[in-house]
Amino acid sequence: MTLDEKLKNLPASPGVYLHKNAEGKIIYVGKAKNLKNRVRSYFQSKRNMDAKTRELVKRIADLEFIVVDNEVEALVLESNLIKKHKPRFNILLKDDKQYPHLKMTNEPFPKVVITRKIVRDGSSYYGPFLPASLARRTLDLINRAFQMRTCDIEINGKLPRPCLEYHLKRCLAPCVKGLCTKEEYSEAARDVKLLLEGKNKELAANLQQRMWHFAENENYELAAKYRDLHNTVLALGEQQKMAMTAERDIDILGFYREGARLALQLFTMREGKMVGRREFFWEDLDAENFNPAQFLGEVLAQYYSTDYVPLEIHVPNDFDDRETLQQALTERRGRKVKILDPKRGRNHEMIRLVENNAKIAFEQRFRVLNPNSEKLLGDLQEILELPYFPERIESFDISNISGSENVAGIVVYENGKPSRGEYRRFIIKTVEGANDFASMNEAVFRRYKRLLAEEKPLPQLIFIDGGKGQISAAAAALQSLDLEGIPVYGLVKPPKQHNQISHLLRFGHEDRPIFFEAGNPAFRLVQQIRDETHKTAIEFHRKRREKRDFTSELTAIPGVAEKRKMKLLRNFGSLEKVAQASVEQLSPFVGAKTAQMIFDHFENQRKMAEQQ
Question: Per the domain annotation, does 91 fall within a domain?
């Protein structure tokens, strides 16, 4: 059936329509009270159409429609189809990130990590967590109380000794035979699963049963362990119960726009307290024909089609489908849901506050201001699935030329800021020639051997400037010091014409690189750390080379021994002035023949530099 025939046979019923281009791709999804009138309006007079709609109509080659019983069903179906097909001409909800989940990996000895991506990999996912800090606190509880592993090494029970995490009572150490059996670790994993599934009463009963069992057998150390776990789970259950008793839950929205760019913030209030927020950004809106009411209606319909529905939603302005959406959300929640646009009072002031935060987020996103360090590092923890908040980050780089003046640069970042007083520079001592892998191994080993000996703080994250070989060498050094629990990531450089990191490689997962968008604030921090590390290593290498050049370059010239070198430097003051001197100026100190050789040496250097 042709497009004209479909237009003639449209029903006068509520429903959803899908416009397609010549390739059959869906380019727009819309809803209508009356499909016949709404869809035909696209193909009538174009005088009152905005530029975006005119461009859409030009591309329509086919259409489909779905009839529903009422406007509410049409709105819900429209939102689901927009999320599924992401049509070019719809306003799409672009979330910078999803709420964090906790992921229990699908491994013989599983671990728990924070993630924002849910994939079909056999792992178990729990969440979402609101606010995001709750995910980090829960993960910290799991690591401390149930001692799940956090490392990426292969668990085969063949390691000779456990790492530092075991001695700090933060890991059961299944990697060492005799410390933890497969059954004991599986029991801990089952306990964590019950905790994450919210089955606190069942878990508490199991823990209490084990406590009495070990007490009766006079194994008081294990009995005390399960007593503490039992008390922790009960306390956590009370906190969760209190959080669920809040009657008044409100979401507050506000946005800030300049041209085609827009930042939207959604604040979540529970029991009168702000407990979380989400950020959304757009960069390609139709600036000339932007309609705040239409924008807000489409965004809300998409967002609440899958997310938790509060009892009240406060918005900065009214929109056409407000009552229809309110009815749809009421059906989803099972209780009366109100969408309000307060014009005065405290609720209006709260919207102004959210809009002000949206403006700040806009500045941080599009004007590259410094974002909040705690939020930035929290995002980095979730993106990299780190077991601990990366309060302290250390980064390594090796610098040499064909193996000469081989040095390492180490930078330290604390709470997202460089701690320059803790930067270190090493001269590589045990490696001959150009061997970056061995050099990296030495630098990492020496660094953390000393920190352990001096009982100084260790990092929660290590960056290595290099790929698989360098991070493997660094990981081997950490393992020899029982520090394999510290995550190691390699910063892989892109081609020279791009001044940014192309992706990260995690030790043990080199086949799954982590790519990123250049504008992501967390990875701008990673780029800054990489650049600072590279600069530190290069500057130290240059100083070493200059020192070497000062003492050895002259003696490398035939006819210039130690005595003549010192005579030249004493009279000219520096190697640079010797290099600039003429044959006549040099002759009184070394003779005409040697003066000519010195002059020719530096003249050849100048010519080579010009050719480069």
Answer: no
Task: Indicate if 133 and 78 belong to the same structural domain.
Answer: no
> Could you tell me if 393 and 413 are in contact, meaning their C-beta atoms sit under 8 angstroms apart?
yes
Q: Can you list the residues of the chain whose pLDDT is less than 70?
A: 45-47, 94-99, 127-128, 130-133, 235-248, 270-276, 306-307, 364, 367-371, 401-404, 493-502, 508, 510-511, 516-519, 545-556, 608-612
- For residue 128, say if its preceding peptide bond is cis, omega within 30 degrees of 0: yes
Q: Is 429 in the same domain as 516?
A: yes
Contacts of residue 509, Cβ cutoff 8 Å, sequence gap at least 6:
152
pLDDT at 459: 93
Asked if residues 492 and 501 have their Cβ atoms less than 8 Å apart, the reply is yes
Of the residues 542, 577, 602, which one is the last residue of a structural domain? 542
pLDDT digits (tens, 9 = 90+) for 428-486: 888 877 788 999 999 999 999 999 998 888 999 999 988 888 999 999 999 899 888 89
**Residue whose structure tokens are 């306990």:** 191
d(CA 445, CA 369): 36
Q: Cis ω on the peptide bond leading into residue 131 (within 30° of 0)? A: yes
Residue with tokens 């995001």: 132
Would you say residue 569 lies in a domain? yes
pTM greater than 0.90 (yes/no)? no
Backbone phi, psi, residue 103, to 5°? -115, 125
- pLDDT computed for residue 272 by the predictor: 59
Phi and psi angles of residue 449, each rounded to the nearest 5 degrees, phi first: -65, -40
Give the DSSP H or E segment for 441. helix 436-453
Whether residue 208 is found in the same domain as residue 282: no
d(CA 534, CA 440): 14
The two tokens of residue 513 are 């690189």
CA-nearest of 242, 179, 235, 180 to 207 is 235
CA distance 503 to 514: 5
How far apart, in whole angstroms, are the C-alpha atoms of residue 142 and residue 354? Answer: 34
Q: Within 10 A of 402 (CB to CB), how many other CB atoms are there?
A: 8
Q: Report the number of distinct structural domains present in the chain.
A: 5
Is the same domain home to 392 and 468? yes
Q: In terms of domains, do 406 and 483 share one?
A: yes
In one letter, which amino acid is 387?
Answer: P
Collapsed DSSP state (helix, strand, coil) of residue 131: coil
Residues in a beta bridge with 176: 158
- What crossing angle do the helices spanning 436-453 and 468-480 adopt, rounded to 10°? 30
Cα–Cα distance, 528 to 393 (Å, whole number): 12
115 beta partners: 101
Q: Whole-angstrom Cα distance, residue 29 to residue 80?
A: 10
Q: Half-sphere exposure of 210 toward its Cβ, with a 13 Å CA cutoff?
A: 20
- Nearest-angstrom CA–CA distance, 395 and 487: 12
Q: Give the amino acid at 188.
A: A
Domain that holds residue 51: 3-85
User: End of a domain among 32, 55, 85?
Assistant: 85
